[in-house]
Write a structure and sequence with these properties.
The chain is an alpha/beta fold. It has three domains: 237 residues, Type I PLP-dependent aspartate aminotransferase-like (Major domain) (Aspartate Aminotransferase, domain 2, 3-Layer(aba) Sandwich), CATH 3.40.640; 104 residues, Aspartate Aminotransferase, domain 1 (Alpha-Beta Complex); 70 residues, no CATH class. The protein is 42% helix and 13% strand. A seven-stranded mixed sheet has the order 1-7-6-5-4-2-3, sandwiched between helices. Strands 10-11-13-12 form a four-stranded antiparallel sheet, covered by helices on one side. Strands 8-9 form a two-stranded antiparallel ribbon. Strand 8 and strand 9 form a beta hairpin. Helix 3 packs parallel to helix 10 and helix 11 runs antiparallel to helix 15. The longest helix is centred in the middle third of the chain and has 38 residues. The protein is globular, with a radius of gyration of 23 Å. Its cofactor is pyridoxal 5'-phosphate. Belongs to the group II decarboxylase family. Sphingosine-1-phosphate lyase subfamily. This is Aminotransferase class V-fold PLP-dependent enzyme. It holds the Pfam family Pyridoxal_deC. InterPro entries: GrpII_AminoAcid_Decarb (IPR050477), PyrdxlP-dep_de-COase (IPR002129), PyrdxlP-dep_Trfase (IPR015424), PyrdxlP-dep_Trfase_major (IPR015421), PyrdxlP-dep_Trfase_small (IPR015422).
Amino acid sequence: MTSGTADPLERLRALQGADLPVHGGRTLAYVYDSGEPEVDRVAREAVAAYAASNALDPTAFPSLLQMENELVGFACALLDAPVTAVGTVTSGGTESILLAVQGARDSRPDVVRPRMVLPSTAHAAFHKAAHYFGVEAVLVPVGPDFRADPAAMAEAMDDDTVLVVASAPSYAHGVVDPVTDVAAAAAARGIRCHVDACIGGWVLPYAARLGRAVPPWTFAVEGVTSISVDTHKYAYAPKGTSLLLHRDAGLRRPQFFASAAWPGYTMLNATTQSTRSGGPVAGTWAVVEHIGDAGYLELAERALAAVDAIVERIEREPALRLVVPPDSTLVAMATDASCDPFTLTDELVDRGWYVQPQLSHGADGASIHLSVSAGTVAHVEEFATALTESLAAAQAAGPVAVDADVVAFIEALDPTTLDDDDFDGLLAASGLVGTAADGGLELPTRMAAVNAMLDVASPPMREALLVAFLDRLQRPVRRS
């Protein structure tokens, strides 16, 4: 058999050279690095061994069923789950959240127009679920500490509410909502309460064991009916797995889908997917087995030590401030008027530290997000140096400004009718994005001006612009 490419792996390595590094503790978004090469070796070998296996039918691949049940069992012990608890392995936090919303909706067939009550800081995946499943998202403003307001959330609940949500912690700010009060209000009305612990689920229990002050949020809190926790984050497992746990099997049952309404096999799914590669499941199981409970305690201690060092460094800079003291491993920092977070982000990226800009939202200004991993602790002094240098460079450059004509152009656009001509006009007016040799879009090396432009746009316009941008990015590459 002949192949189309002489050495596809060589080309793969070349392509990967343009990506962010997934090891080394310097990519503070998207990836989570244990700092342990052996963890990566175990994960890679397990994924490869099960890459062709299919988790669609647990009777055909019982080893995957065993691994999934053991992963759920580990999480149940971690999250104070009762003996009645059950769980499902999903493809990631978004799918876990989608299933939590879909299951809550389908558990109440009597409700014609279902609603869910969310703090305004809840993850965007809940809005995606609302869009997919026709569940109205009722947003409740949070308090000045960026935590959910239990009284306001209770006031927002009604007979059509099928789900109430809290975060442990919220992604944007890294703080844990007052789950005890939110769950109690939901339970008083017989409403499900889901805790989104996709970020904190595999690290907050260890933080508590290390003596840190962690607000109650697990199944030990009465009224919590389900929890999502991502294993591809602080379990340091390969991408592609998360867990959705329910307090009992009856709560999970509406999540399942079965159909015999066709002449093929009777479809039976626990998740939104049918075919699922066994690779991520095996990789996750192998990593959890390899690290173990004591290993996770040590990794949590390293990650939290890195957080402490980064927080201390931020607090020493007069031009910087914490948006709110973090409860876990997520840090949000803001700048004063001497510079802007978008330019500071570019300067940090130039020095090998990838941090994530967060656009302004409501009355809250733009900020910078850091997801800190265990692998970062060995490099905190390097980060401190990079932060000092980056801040000086950002202050020397001054805050980025968006041309008044570009602002007027954006304000004149209708996000509901944005078309290719409008998008092309915006590109031309801003001069922010060039055209690559293959006709596609080419981003500038520095993104401060792009983010500043998005920051002056309304949220609906941001969405429309980014959808148009993604559409342009994802175009076929035809090779002769």
